[in-house]
Amino acid sequence: MKDVIMETVQLNKAFSLGETIYAVNNVNIKIERGSMNVIIGPSGSGKSTLLSLLGGLDRPMSGDVLLEGQSYRALSEDQLALLRRRKLGFVFQFFNLIPHLTALENVMLPLQFINTPHKAAKRRGLELLERVGLAKRSRHLPLQLSGGEQQRVAIARALANRPAVILADEPTGNLDTKTRDEIVALFQELNQQEKQTFVMVTHDPSLSKFADQLIVMQDGCVVSP
Amino acid sequence: MFFRLGLVNIVRQLERSALALLSLAIAAFSLTHSLAISLGYPAQAFANYRHYLGGDTVVYPTRIMGNPNQNQRLELHRIPNDAFSTLTLIYPHLTREGFLAPTTPILRPFSPADMQELATHPQVRAVDALYRMPGWWQDNPASLRAVPPDSKLWQYQTEQLSAPTARATIPVWLNSRQNTAPLPPVGSELDLRLPRIGLTPAGSLQYDANHTLVQRVVVAGYYEVPTRVVSWPGPDGGDFLTEQGYLDLNEVWLLEDDWQELWRLTTDNLPPVAGSLGLQVTDMSILEAIVGQLQIDYPEWTIISAPNLAKQAEAESALDSFQRAPKEYWAGRSHKPQHAFPIDVSRTLAGLIYLNAGLLMAARMLTGAAARRKEIGILKALGARRRDILLMALTEAVVLCLIGSTIGFAIAYPAALFQQISNGLAWGQILRLLAKNYGIILGQTLTIGVIFGLLPAWRLAKLTVNEVLRA
């Protein structure tokens, strides 16, 4: 029996724009532990909305998300925040680093959220920056880093609290080709060597190539698999 | 963590933080200054009242609310309105409704030892006993007051006999502004009727109005004591009209020796007892601090500054009246009287500066709102709760307020400290005042800073991550 780490149950999310538009329509997916999952689809197909729902950043109209058996439905906003803090990592298209914190401080942030002692958090932060090839840039502020380097810091930050799942929204969408290839290689390495579970929204075919599961969306519905 | 992020934000937004800090410091400075000078008054403040009440501060021989330092049983008392002291004139509810006081005698006369002890107090320049007794002239109830020859009250004399009276007849001075009886002409004779005065076994004074003695006196002159000036709008929106108010009590002044002679006659040689003591203090600018210190040192007495008595008297319209001014302008509590010294606007000014500082605190949170919104969105995505965001904003506000109020206080307060130390105020009192004032400044600054600092953060913390990161 496969080890399902995350799943959705008849997930629905609609927006009322004059008429009701289903951004996510009756979606049922299962994410296996240690797998690379890529969500693709045309613009407006509901990919990012689905990712937000998986991350507990948004509430569904109906249906549920389960992470390691924990239902999101019964959780309050604060409980959802604590769940994100402990079990999820996020990588965004525009990196979303805190601009006045150094690379190391940005990586340490999720660890400090879970009250990791400062020394241990710093050690883990430096390990992760080393892992993404930025050990020498640990004291730099985000603005002193290139786009690729910022995304590496964001990936290190997402890995910091050893999350069950990393959710990435167009992680290569804002990078040049060379940098994109480096980031794709990093994701692949983390997935294959460390069995890190990923759910990514992307238009990038080079990421889709490595997907264990390719989820194709159209008009809010999953059309494949 | 969020505490640290708050601190980082202060440093990160150094320019805006410095501006908010500066404005908080200026507000704290102005309030400190206002509080420090509000301990006292200019040298000539309430001069007329101080002359009338017999000192810069008045000591009454009873503790209205009991002695807090002793485990005393309190009872409800009412002071008879016997014109023995100004206490019941200015606080008429003590007669009407009563007050809580210990079961010990409530009008124990002052002893010479009491006066000597008060005179040695480092902040007291002089102690004067104020002697009164009740009586009647032509059936009009009056308070007979002894006025020493060097008293400043004599400056309020308006008419007097051109030739000295024969010493066989006691001279008296009548208040030309009293409105209970037509004034007899200067030089005319009138009869004073005096009750028999004795002491109860408990030591209180008691008056026997059924057994009186009559003394023929001569009207040696009149006096009028100005109180406050009242203004009111003229008819049809014209210029403001003003009227000087005057003490309107039926108080008869006697020379000190004559008063003592009458006292001797009516009490069968009891030594004169003072209804209150008037204290001249060393420095009017710290008057309230001195009064506070005296009240701590002498908990068995009620000690009130003359300006506070004057304000209370004005609020009650207890001592004066007006001929032309509409009653609501002098008897109404909402109208502030005018005094011959500048009105203290420093509290109002401090309030406005605080408002300005609060707006700068809010502006500091809102300026660069896009960046701050994004930061809050990221933190929420990483697992920050709304309360964590508020803690971060609270840290920023509290730290800025702590530093700002301390800087403002530290700059303004040394002047007050110097004044207190150079006036020989007790160290305990100096420290109490310092703690009290710093507490007020800190409390005021924190209230303003936290309200204005937290409101914008509260609004931002309510946004969802999607609203913020996708904006």
Summed up, what is this model?
With 225 residues, chain A is α/β, with parallel strands linked by helices. Chain A has helices at 47-54, 77-87, 103-113, 118-131, 147-159, 177-194, 205-208; strands at residues 4-17, 19-27, 30-32, 36-40, 62-67, 70-71, 88-91, 165-169, 197-201, 213-218, 221-224. In chain A, helix 3 (103-113) crosses helix 4 (118-131), helix 4 crosses helix 5 (147-159) and helix 5 (147-159) packs parallel to helix 6 (177-194).
Highlighted features:
heterodimer, A: 225 residues, alpha/beta, Rossmann fold, 6-stranded mixed β-sheet, 5-stranded antiparallel β-sheet, 7 helices, 11 strands, 28% strand, B: 471 residues, alpha+beta, 4-stranded antiparallel β-sheet, 23% strand, elongated
Describe what this molecule looks like in 3D:
The complex is a heterodimer of chains A (225) and B (471). Chain A has 225 residues and is an alpha/beta fold. Chain A has a single domain (4-224), classed as 3-Layer(aba) Sandwich (Rossmann fold), CATH 3.40.50. Chain A is built from 7 helices and 11 strands. Chain A has helices at residues 47-54, 77-87, 103-113, 118-131, 147-159, 177-194, 205-208, and strands at 4-17, 19-27, 30-32, 36-40, 62-67, 70-71, 88-91, 165-169, 197-201, 213-218, 221-224. In chain A, the strands form 2 sheets. A 6-stranded mixed β-sheet of chain A has the order 7-8-9-4-10-11. In chain A, strands 1, 2, 3, 5 and 6 form a 5-stranded antiparallel β-sheet that branches. In chain A, helix 3 packs across helix 4 and helix 4 (118-131) packs across helix 5. Chain A is globular, with a radius of gyration of 17 Å. The model of chain A has no long low-confidence stretch (mean pLDDT 89). Chain B folds into 2 domains: 2-38 and 344-469, no CATH class; 47-330, no CATH class. Chain B has 15 helices and 16 strands. Chain B has helices spanning 2-12, 14-37, 47-53, 86-90, 93-96, 112-119, 256-267, 287-297, 306-316, 327-330, 346-366, 369-381, 386-422, 427-461, 465-469; strands at 57-60, 74-77, 99-102, 124-130, 132-137, 140-147, 157-160, 170-175, 189-199, 205-223, 226-233, 240-247, 251-255, 276-281, 302-305, 320-321. Chain B is elongated. The interface between A and B is medium-sized, with 26 and 24 residues.
